[in-house]
Each structure stands twice: as structure tokens, then as C-alpha cells.
Design brief:
4-stranded antiparallel sheet, alpha+beta, about 290 residues
């Protein structure tokens, strides 16, 4: 008895009990109504309150054998199965002791872990029907902008900081250097984004440089250098390529439309399941 009392005082035992409490959710949620869908689980049912009996029945033995086979990669021998059964009993004892001592409560790590497991159970319980083509087309039409490709431009620029007369004079010098065949990446002031921009949307460029810079950019003849003013300073800009806008194509986007449809409806179903669970609790905000 003194030996077991000493063991019970060991911090390692307390740590093991806390660890075992992390398995509580596997038992605790078995009887919950989860989005009105039954969730299969290999874990045994939760013990009755105050019960001190651990039953190693056929279901438990089957679970133990399956776990041992998965871990070993083969059918366990009789001694291995016996050892696995003893470990299972130890884990069950630790689990029940942890619950009895309240180690599954008032610990933020355990609380977060159990909440995450419950969220996973809710997600697995959501069964969505396969959407019809009509449903996908309606979803596609309602969110067409997600699959519409706007104009994109590739351009090279030479930057001059400032916008006064001195900056304008420098820009004139750089323009002559470009006309003489100088490499643009060797000219101008340093710019955070570099000299070359590829595949940029006009709306994004307007946000980054300003509306004055982006105005008419896609219509500028390719290969020509044009002076442009931005919120950062002055630029000599050459258009290298313009990719025209493309309207959304349902046939090309169908797989992505289906994924987004399922994701959105799964999120709605999870939110509804969470509301049903919350309806069974009284929330007091103090």
C-alpha cells in the first residue's frame, strides 16, 4: 500500500493521468446528437458515473487486436495480444482516474484539445448530397466574379524619386539613355518592387501606384516608353504584354465550382449543427 501511495505522488503519474484525459472526448461525445447523424467510433461507451468496473468484452478485444495489428503491421501473437490487453486496461484505468479527479476540466490545453476533437466529430458527421448540375450552375452564376479573369499587364519601368523640376529633368536624361539602348534595370532610383512587373491586375496597380499611373496602361502600345506619375514619384513605363480579360467558363471551372459549393454548404451545415448543440445549453454572460 505504501508503495502505491508513493507512486501516486510521482509527478510522472499525474502527467500520465492528464495525458489520458485527452482521450475523454472519444467517450464523451459518443451519445451526443451530432447534426442528427450517427458517427461510428471504435471507442467503448462511456462508463456509468461512479462505476469502478472495467469490462474487457468482445468489442474491446476486437479493438485491441485491430490496434495491435495496425501498429505491428501483422497479426499479433498471443503474448503480444495479452500485453496489448494489459496496456489497454492500464490506459482505461488512467482515463477513468483522470475523469474522476477532474483533470479534463480547468486545463486550457486539455480544454482546447477536447474542443478540437468535438469540432472534428461535428465535421465528420456532416453528410452533403452530391450537387446537381443545376445547383452548381446557379452557384456559379451567383459567384461568377470568382472565375472571371480581368486584364493583366506585364511592364518594365524606370523610377525617379520626387516629382519636381529636377526629377523631370532626370527623367528626360533617362529617356534619352533608353532610346540609346541602355538597359532599364541599370537606370533610375531604387524601387521596392524592382524594375519588372508581371501578370498584374489594373485594379491592383491602381491601389499600389495610384489611379493616374494605371489609367490607360493596358491601352498603351507594347514596346513604347511612356511617362507616368504615381504616388511614389515619376516613371518611364514600357508595356511588355497585355493579357485580355476572360469571362467565366462553367465547363472549365466546374471542379472548382463543386469544391466551393461543398465547402460553403459544409460550413453552413456545421454552423447549424453548432447552433443545435448550443440550444441545449444555457449561456450566462456575466
Amino acid at each position: 500500500m505504501a508503495r502505491w501511495t508513493a507512486i501516486a505522488r510521482e509527478p510522472l503519474v499525474h502527467f500520465a493521468l492528464i495525458g489520458a484525459a485527452l482521450f475523454a472526448i472519444d467517450r464523451a461525445v459518443a451519445a451526443d446528437d451530432v447534426a442528427a447523424v450517427s458517427v461510428p467510433t471504435a471507442a467503448p461507451p462511456a462508463p456509468a458515473p461512479g462505476s469502478r468496473t472495467i469490462v474487457v468484452d468482445a468489442a474491446a478485444r476486437a479493438q485491441i487486436a485491430a490496434t495491435a495489428q495496425r501498429q505491428l503491421g501483422r497479426v499479433p501473437s498471443e503474448p503480444e495480444l495479452a500485453a496489448a490487453t494489459e496496456r489497454w486496461i492500464d490506459d482505461e484505468v488512467l482515463y477513468r482516474e483522470a475523469l474522476a479527479r477532474g483533470l479534463d476540466r480547468d486545463d486550457p490545453v486539455i480544454r482546447e484539445r477536447i474542443a478540437s476533437r468535438m469540432a472534428y466529430v461535428l465535421e465528420q458527421a456532416v453528410a452533403l448530397p452530391e450537387p446537381t448540375d443545376a445547383e452548381l450552375r446557379a452557384w456559379f452564376d451567383a459567384h461568377r466574379e470568382r472565375w472571371t479573369s480581368p486584364e493583366h499587364v506585364d511592364f518594365t519601368h524606370v523610377f525617379v524619386a520626387g516629382s519636381d523640376a529636377a526629377a523631370e529633368a532626370r527623367l528626360d536624361e533617362l529617356s534619352r539613355a533608353l532610346a540609346a539602348g541602355a538597359a532599364p534595370e541599370r537606370l533610375g532610383d531604387r524601387f521596392t518592387g524592382g524594375h519588372r512587373y508581371r501578370g498584374r491586375k489594373l485594379a491592383d496597380l491602381a491601389l499600389a501606384f495610384g489611379d493616374e499611373f494605371a489609367a490607360g496602361l493596358a491601352a498603351q502600345p507594347a514596346g513604347t516608353w511612356v511617362r507616368r506619375r504615381s504616388r511614389h514619384g515619376l516613371h518611364l513605363v514600357r508595356i511588355d504584354r497585355v493579357d485580355a480579360a476572360h469571362d467565366a467558363d462553367f465547363a472549365a471551372a466546374r471542379l472548382d465550382v463543386r469544391k466551393q459549393w461543398l465547402d460553403a454548404h459544409r460550413a453552413d451545415a456545421l454552423a447549424a449543427a453548432m447552433q443545435r448543440i448550443r440550444a441545449g445549453w444555457t449561456i450566462e454572460r456575466r
